[in-house]
Amino acid sequence: MEPITFKPLYMQRVWGGRELEKIYARQLPDADQPYGESWEIVDRETEQSVVDHGPLAGSTLHELWTTRRDELFGTGYASHDRFPILIKVLDARDDLSIQVHPPVELAADLGGEPKTEMWFIADRDPEAKLYVGLKHGVTRAAFEQAIADGSVAQLVHAVSPEPGDSIFIASGRLHAIGAGFLIHEIQQNSDTTYRVFDWNRMGLDGKPRELHVEKSMASIDFNDFEPEMDTPVGDTLATCAYFRTDRKSLAAGASLGNPDEARFSIVSVVDGCVRSQGGRTFAKGSFLLLPRGAAPLEAVVPSTLLQVTLPHESTAL
């Protein structure tokens, strides 16, 4: 089995830019618009990854998931109607809104979907900052007052990560990506975001973007004070009930296959270049699905990869 690749879905965002052209040599749909997100692997009702190469070209991820699941992905996923994770690249040239995703125990009552995610810093400007959690001592009452007077940003904790750093963003963690980041995001298959503050700016349509103050206040973890970037455990950057992400560093000529030969994985090329057994090469910025039983990838040059796997028979997904 050869790796499966998909056509990215590019999303215009008021805070986006054109770094995907510069860093990954992508061709963006419109020469003048800011693109903040590239949805690399997605199976949602209104957004679908479509295979762009080989005998499966033209098939959607949902078609593969529903009709060839055991063959391509392996067993252990019978309870999931849709592919359970979503992988994006985020290009933040301006600050994203300060936001939160609803925790699993509240999401249905709030009319949304839970969303736990992780961020891997692929590139960043020297002064770029992430906003995660609250500063020590911030109370719910103080935060409500800051919403009223427009000073929310002063209460949110900021960190200054380096390329290669990562951080886990559980549902309920207040967060925002600051200007100047290129980030790989691995997340639950959800598109629910509650904005609590948007820097008082206008959207692409010239109007203020909608805020979700009441739902945000219900979702925020007000005991989440000043988290730092995560420390890897061996190769593992993040592991939870929804996904596991490992960083693999390969010397030229070294290989990487699925950790479990009977199950698939997703690989993103952070740096370098890898080659499939069939001779396809995948350069920096490539995302590919290694099907069940796929032959290992070989590093053409020293390469850094992220490898994402799913828990076996997890009911949490």
How is this structure best summarized?
The protein is mostly beta strands. The protein folds into 2 domains: 6-219, Jelly Rolls, CATH 2.60.120; 236-309, Jelly Rolls (Sandwich). The chain has helices at residues 19-24, 61-67, 69-72, 104-110, 140-149, 213-219, and strands at residues 6-7, 9-17, 35-41, 50-51, 85-92, 98-100, 117-124, 130-134, 156-159, 166-169, 175-177, 181-188, 194-197, 236-239, 244-250, 255-256, 265-271, 273-275, 281-283, 287-290, 297-299, 303-309.
Helix content: 10-25%
Residue-averaged pLDDT, rounded?
94
CATH topology of the largest domain: Jelly Rolls
CATH superfamily of the largest domain: Jelly Rolls
Number of strands: 22
Number of separate structural domains: 2
* Largest sheet: number of strands, sense, barrel closure: 6 strands, antiparallel
Quaternary structure state of the chains depicted: single chain
Strand order of the largest sheet: 2-3-5-12-7-10
Order of helices and strands: EEHEEHHEEHEEHEEEEEHEEEEEEEEE
* Rg, alpha carbons: 20 Å
Can you tell me the CATH architecture of the largest domain?
A: Sandwich
Given the C-alpha coordinates, what overall shape results? Answer: globular
Name of the top-level CATH class of the largest domain: Mainly Beta
What is the straight-line distance between the termini?
26 Å
* Low-pLDDT sequence parts: none
Strand content: 25-35%
Q: How many DSSP H or I helices? A: 6
How would you characterize this protein structure?
This protein is mainly β and 317 residues long. The chain folds into 2 domains: 6-219, Jelly Rolls (Sandwich); 236-309, Jelly Rolls (Sandwich). Helices cover 13% and strands 34% of the residues. It has 6 helices and 22 strands. It has helices at 19-24, 61-67, 69-72, 104-110, 140-149, 213-219; strands spanning 6-7, 9-17, 35-41, 50-51, 85-92, 98-100, 117-124, 130-134, 156-159, 166-169, 175-177, 181-188, 194-197, 236-239, 244-250, 255-256, 265-271, 273-275, 281-283, 287-290, 297-299, 303-309. The strands form 6 sheets. The protein has a 6-stranded antiparallel beta sheet with strand order 2-3-5-12-7-10, with no helix packed on it. β14 (236-239) and β15 (244-250) form a beta hairpin. It is globular. The model has no long low-confidence stretch (mean pLDDT 94).
